[in-house]
């Protein structure tokens, strides 16, 4: 199956938190969006891997993803090695997306950094015919990075005003991970009561920067063409 968009994430819920609004906007526009999580998040303080997979299924339904897969790599060890690199190359060649998304390569969580760097390598090497996987070589048109904990100066901001609530519904599908007054599990960085308020505040800040209610920021290492005619229209 060929996709328009392929997103790589270290753990279930990473993509929803970072670009759930953009995903919902793309799927509402009829684009085929796939998401590949590299781990089951088994080192997470709250919940279980089995529960998080069920939560990911619900979030995928809310976002109307074309497909979602989990590579089952070891949480806490998502960094460069040949197995990881070739697995990502195979996925890129299998789905042949026009655009690739990855975690920004500087973040609080080492796994996010590792996956960002892995995707950058896979993005390039998937286009080399001499790397043999039994598939045709293929390189997507662009690689964009999404924001997790650490901020960056965006290359562009996507207006998610119409899909912000869909994003938050997808985030709330991960009931084990976020604030629950009835939970007896230890508190984490993202289970604090104010974390979801922070998520909304960040979306409002980036929305304000483009004159919209809500926005999600993205970064590209390459220059992006700007069509000034479309802006005038």
UniProtKB/TrEMBL annotation:
Signal peptide: none annotated. GO terms for molecular function: deacetylase activity; hydrolase activity, acting on carbon-nitrogen (but not peptide) bonds, in linear amides. One of its GO terms (biological process) is bacillithiol biosynthetic process. It comes from the Bacteria. NCBIfam families: thiol_BshB1. This is Lmbe family protein. It comes from Melioribacter roseus (strain DSM 23840 / JCM 17771 / VKM B-2668 / P3M-2).
């Amino acid at each position: 199956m060929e996709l328009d968009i392929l997103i790589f994430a270290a753990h279930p819920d990473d993509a929803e938190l970072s670009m759930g609004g953009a995903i919902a906007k793309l799927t509402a526009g009829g684009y085929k969006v796939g998401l590949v999580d590299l781990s089951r998040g088994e080192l997470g303080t709250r919940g279980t891997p089995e529960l998080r997979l069920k939560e990911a299924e619900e979030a995928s339904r809310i976002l109307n993803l074309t497909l979602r897969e989990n590579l089952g790599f070891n949480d806490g060890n998502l960094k460069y090695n040949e197995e990881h690199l070739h697995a990502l190359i195979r996925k890129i060649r299998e789905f042949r997306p026009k655009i690739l998304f990855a975690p920004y390569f500087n973040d609080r969580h080492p796994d996010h950094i590792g996956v960002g760097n892995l995707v950058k390598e896979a993005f390039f090497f998937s286009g080399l015919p001499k790397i043999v996987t039994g598939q045709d070589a293929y390189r997507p048109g662009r690689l964009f990075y999404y924001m997790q904990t650490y901020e960056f100066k965006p290359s562009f901001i996507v207006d998610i005003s119409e899909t912000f609530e869909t994003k938050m519904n997808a985030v709330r599908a991960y009931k084990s991970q976020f604030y629950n007054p009835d939970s007896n599990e230890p508190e984490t960085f993202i289970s604090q009561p104010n974390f979801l308020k922070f998520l909304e505040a960040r979306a409002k800040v980036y929305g304000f920067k483009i004159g919209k209610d809500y926005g999600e920021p993205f970064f590209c290492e390459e220059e992006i063409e700007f069509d000034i005619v479309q802006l005038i229209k």
